[in-house]
Amino acid sequence: MLAREGSDSCTCPFLNDDDPRCRAHFSLRQIAQTFDLCLDRYRACPLYYTLRYEDRLAESLPLVAEVTVEGREASAGHAA
Questions:
Q1: Looking at residue 1, what is its pLDDT?
Q2: What's the CA gap between 25 and 47, in Å, rounded?
Q3: In terms of CB atoms within 10 Å, which of 11, 23, 38, 41 comes out highest?
Q4: How far apart are CA 10 and CA 21, in angstroms?
Q5: Phi/psi class of residue 6: alpha, beta or left (left: φ > 0; alpha: ψ in -120 to 50)?
């Protein structure tokens, strides 16, 4: 969410989102790099900017719902 940007924290605002792309970095083999990047220099992470872009995009898109009448298929050009 856009409110994350106002944080003065050194911790990545997406750290607790459980994104599988981030999760791939959490292993004992690279724990030092993960702590350095996610808990100190998250703005140096290319994935941070991808997540930020996706977050902004999600905030700007309207919610869309498809409404159907029970028992009828929703299809373009279907005559009632």
A1: 41
A2: 11
A3: 38
A4: 20
A5: alpha
Question: Which two three-digit tokens encode residue 32?
Answer: 């030092």
Q: Does residue 3 surpass a pLDDT of 80?
A: no
31, 61, 62 from 67: Cα distances, Å:
48, 18, 16
CA dist 60 to 8, 22, 54, Å?
24, 23, 10
State the CB neighbour count (10 A cutoff) for residue 75.
7
The answer to whether residues 42 and 48 touch, using CB atoms and an 8 Å cutoff, is yes
Interval 4-52: pLDDT, tens: 554 567 899 998 888 999 888 888 898 898 889 998 899 999 899 999 9
SS3 54: helix
